[in-house]
From TrEMBL:
It holds the Pfam family RuBisCO_large. GO terms for biological process: reductive pentose-phosphate cycle. Belongs to the RuBisCO large chain family. Type I subfamily. The lineage of its organism: Bacteria, Pseudomonadati, Pseudomonadota, Alphaproteobacteria, Rhodospirillales. PROSITE patterns: RUBISCO_LARGE. Keywords: Calvin cycle, Carbon dioxide fixation, Lyase, Magnesium, Metal-binding, Monooxygenase, Oxidoreductase. Residues 155-462 form the Ribulose bisphosphate carboxylase large subunit C-terminal domain. GO terms for molecular function: magnesium ion binding; monooxygenase activity; ribulose-bisphosphate carboxylase activity. The basic functional RuBisCO is composed of a large chain homodimer in a 'head-to-tail' conformation. In form I RuBisCO this homodimer is arranged in a barrel-like tetramer with the small subunits forming a tetrameric 'cap' on each end of the 'barrel'. This is Ribulose bisphosphate carboxylase large chain. Its EC number is 4.1.1.39. The keyword GTP-binding does not apply. RuBisCO catalyzes two reactions: the carboxylation of D-ribulose 1,5-bisphosphate, the primary event in carbon dioxide fixation, as well as the oxidative fragmentation of the pentose substrate. Both reactions occur simultaneously and in competition at the same active site. Its cofactor is Mg(2+). The gene is rbcL.
Length: 485
């Protein structure tokens, strides 16, 4: 930050101990270009490290720099390629941490490659010694860069058209127990849940091709169940067949087979990696299939407030990479997430243009250009008794998924599914009539349950199941004027 005299600069340069801020990675007067990628990091410098130098170091390490001056810089357009830390603000309520805004020239990134973007932005820099911790809070991805990605292969509008389902959230269930069922019993769960009123069932994140049930068995029994449920109900149904596997070849084989036996949707887990996700997205686009993404593994790096990557960034990357569904949190379920921050994740999936909204953790205006919309999925510890909260929080364009909340019903799976469908339809009707579903929700559910025994039983058995917030459910930060800039 401080100007240093030319001689000092030359001496340090010669000795190879230039500070990053002296090498051009701190430029407080820099005005980001419309085409720049901008990242905001939460940096927690080691004791005694100047936050400006820490921000410059992050800019350096995530773009062109190494630990010493290299003369080959001079062979490049280094002024253009250096990332520019241009703003450092204290994080409100967190005296050790700072928000550092860093701009990157678009030419630093290969078009249409999340792998390449992330190798810079979350590469070496997260293990960097001058920092105690580092968290990527948000990114502004310029339209010029967004346009290099295909985005969701199907998107919300076309998915609804294919399913012929409108004006309400979709309903799903994860087959339980997570592991151990044989193919035939697994198929029974799928059939009963779909027949009972759900739109979808799904494999759990860790169901692939284990000794107790090989993937072909699962696919065949599941599709038999889907076909029978469609015939009985007259509705289009689906089951997310998890094609996650050890290699791309295996995943393509499983996806091709799923398509050949009539599935409209396949599923992958986040743990397969960004390149594999993009490959599967291209496959889904070529084959007119909906692509569901389970965010398995994300909490290992999204949950801590001071280190890692915010899920809002993962959500942005996944919309670019091209998934049609993404698990985005439940607020009222078993997994962590506060309402304001979770709303930000949902908006990233569903808006064409997202204005800066710090209260939802959205640091930048973000256009998604022509990308289709990703359907967020609320899954993890939800049940029929929360239907009013779920509808109020997430609106219509969401899949509400009840695993235990369907299969744990005391009268069985079909009853669990019916309870969820009746609760949803009662709540949508009440909302459409202009009723205050948040406050009247429990009464609306109670009234509906008088005509639906499965719903009454569900409300009764889960009436005390609430997942209280824990300390990690706090918003990422409380916005103040200085952060808004
Ligand atoms: O993978 C998921 O989404 C969860 O396993 C859902 O299961 P639950 O509804 O029983 O929590
Ligand atoms: Mg699961």
């Amino acid at each position: 930050m401080n100007a240093i005299d030319k001689r000092d600069r030359r001496d340090r340069y010669a000795a190879g101990v230039m500070k990053y801020q002296d090498m051009g990675y701190w430029q407080p007067d820099y005005v980001p270009k419309d085409t720049d990628v901008i990242a905001v990091f939460r940096i927690t410098p080691q004791d005694g490290v100047d936050p400006i130098e820490a921000a410059a170091a992050v800019a350096g390490e995530s773009s062109t720099a190494t630990w010493t001056v290299v003369w080959t810089d001079r062979l490049t357009a280094c002024d253009k390629y250096r990332a520019k830390a241009h703003r450092v603000e204290p994080v409100p309520g967190s005296p050790e941490s700072w928000f550092a805004y860093i701009a990157y020239d678009i030419d630093l990134f290969e078009p249409g490659s999340i792998a390449n973007l992330t190798a810079s932005i979350i590469g070496n820099v997260f293990g960097f010694k001058p920092l105690k911790a580092l968290r990527l809070e948000d990114m502004r991805l310029p339209v010029a860069y967004v346009k290099t990605f295909d985005g969701p292969p199907t998107g919300i509008v076309v998915e609804r058209e294919r399913l012929d389902k409108f004006g309400r959230p979709l309903l799903g269930a994860t087959v339980k127990p997570k592991l151990g069922l044989s193919g035939r019993n697994y198929g029974r769960v799928v059939y009963e849940a779909l027949k009972g009123g759900l739109d979808f069932t799904k494999d759990d994140e860790n169901i692939n091709s284990q000794p107790f049930m090989h993937w072909r068995d699962r696919f065949l029994y599941c599709m038999e169940a889907v076909n029978r449920a469609q015939a009985v109900t007259g509705e289009i149904k689906g089951t997310y067949l998890n094609v996650t596997a050890a290699t791309m070849e295996d995943m393509y084989e499983r996806a091709e087979f799923a398509k050949s036996i009539g599935s409209c949707i396949v599923m992958i887990d986040l743990v397969i990696g960004y390149t594999a996700i993009q490959s599967m997205s291209k496959w889904a686009r070529r084959n007119d299939m909906v692509l569901h993404l389970h965010r398995a593994g994300h909490s290992t790096y999204t949950r801590q407030k001071s280190h890692g990557v915010s899920f809002r960034v993962i959500a942005k990357w996944m919309r670019l990479a091209g998934v049609d569904h993404i698990h985005a949190g439940t607020v009222v379920g078993k997994l962590e997430g506060d309402p304001a921050t979770t709303k930000g994740y949902y908006d990233i999936c569903r808006e064409d243009f997202l204005p800066q909204r710090l209260e939802n953790g959205i640091f930048f205006d973000q256009s998604f250009a022509s990308l289709r919309k990703t359907m967020p999925v609320a899954s993890g510890g939800i049940h029929a008794g929360q239907m009013h909260q779920l509808l109020d929080l997430f609106g219509d364009d969401v899949v509400l998924q009840f695993g235990g909340g369907t299969i744990g019903h005391p009268m069985g799976i079909q009853a669990g599914a019916t309870a969820n469908r009746v609760a949803l339809e009662a709540m949508v009707l009440a909302r459409n009539e202009g009723r205050d579903i948040v406050n009247e929700g429990p009464d609306i559910l109670a009234a509906a349950s008088r005509h639906c025994t499965p719903l009454r039983q569900a409300l009764d058995v889960w009436k005390d199941v609430t997942f209280n917030y824990t300390s990690t459910d706090a918003p990422d930060f409380v916005p103040t004027a200085s952060v808004a800039g």
